[in-house]
Amino acid sequence: MENGTYLYLMLFENIGYIRYAFFGLGFILYCAIVFFNALIILAIFLERTLHQPMYILISCLSVNSVFGTAAFFPRLLIDLLSDTHSVSRAACILQAFVIFSYASNENIILMLMAFDRYVAISKPLQYNNIMTPRILSVLISKSWIYPMLSIGIAGILNARLTMCGNKLWKVY
């Protein structure tokens, strides 16, 4: 192992047996997040009356939540149970990419929800002409593409920098 390619997480070093309790709570929380978001997505998908722009955006928030949670919790749970708390630099950059793109996408989807309510309130007679399924699908696809590109470019530029140390004292 080259010294600069691995990061060592110092936070988990001396927590003793309490890590099993933290693991149990984290695992329950992770399962609950995935279950309830899947329930929301399934309910909106199966119920025909919920195929409206606001509910579709709510299901996009749930998909995004599962996306962000899948980047954070599995690695955290592995680190809680592991005796060696190291992560490769590439895995760290990938996890940062997913978490930052998740946060950016969350803000964009909330902005789209605000835009949907604005159009519904200010132009109620033109709402169905403005918020068509085609426009909504374009807006949703752009809400996923823009964060991926902007955070991806920043991640590529960040990966080229040299590290000043390889011990991390905080997770985030």
Automatic annotation (TrEMBL):
Keyword NADP: no
Span of domain G-protein coupled receptors family 1 profile: 36-172
One Pfam family cited in the UniProt record for this chain: 7tm_4
Name of the protein described by the UniProt record: Odorant receptor, family E, subfamily 128, member 10
Membrane-topology annotation of the record: Multi-pass membrane protein
Keywords: Membrane, Transducer, Transmembrane, Transmembrane helix
Membrane-crossing segments per the record: 20-46, 53-73, 93-115, 135-157
GO biological process, one term: G protein-coupled receptor signaling pathway
Compartment annotation: Membrane
Record-level GO cellular component terms: membrane
Cytoplasm listed as a keyword: no
GO MF term set: odorant binding; olfactory receptor activity
InterPro entries assigned: GPCR1_Superfamily_Member (IPR052921), GPCR_Rhodpsn_7TM (IPR017452), Olfact_rcpt (IPR000725)
